[in-house]
Design brief:
Elements lengths: L1 H25 L12 E10 L4 E3 L5 E6 L2 E6 L7 E8 L2 E11 L3 E4 L16 E8 L3 E5 L3 E7 L1
Length: about 150
């Protein structure tokens, strides 16, 4: 009787281990090497290199980074934002392949860079030099602007 109970318990434990291994093996975890870049950044100021400065308040512009996707959005106009692929390497941040997220129509490829101006992006494929990047602040500059962010 005792041996039958141990055998049943052993089968149950082996079955539970097999189920757990299957669950963990089916998970695909994507780890990011973006460090403090990952997260939600509020665009505070755009300094144009011609000397003009534009404070973004009260226009709440945000850039958010995760894995290899970046989203720019304005929370007040209730749109779903524009997504970019990005590459962070050698002290630079390259944004490319912008698409507008239209929930009802799907992703629409952006071919007119003027739709990006309000977010501080002036080219469909834009590279910024990273001046400052820490857990609180980010400062980027391109050939035309300097953008100042705070981590949100």
């Amino acid at each position: 009787m005792k041996s039958k109970t141990y055998r049943s318990l052993g089968i149950i434990i082996c079955g539970m281990i097999a189920v757990c291994m299957t669950i963990f093996a089916s998970c695909d975890l994507h780890m990011s090497n973006n460090g403090v870049l990952d997260g939600f950044w509020q665009l505070k100021t755009i300094e144009k290199l011609n000397g003009c400065t534009q404070e973004m308040y009260p226009l709440p512009m945000y850039w958010s980074f995760e894995a290899d996707l970046m989203q720019v959005c304005n929370k007040d106009d209730h749109n779903f934002g524009i997504f970019f692929r990005f590459d962070k390497s050698n002290g630079n941040l390259r944004l490319y392949s912008p698409v507008k997220n239209e929930r009802s129509e799907g992703d629409i490829v952006i071919t007119d860079a003027s739709k990006l101006y309000r977010y501080g992006i002036f080219h469909l494929d834009e590279t910024f030099t990273i001046e400052t990047l820490n857990s609180e602040n980010m400062v980027l500059h391109s050939d035309s602007i300097r953008a100042i962010f705070r981590k949100y």
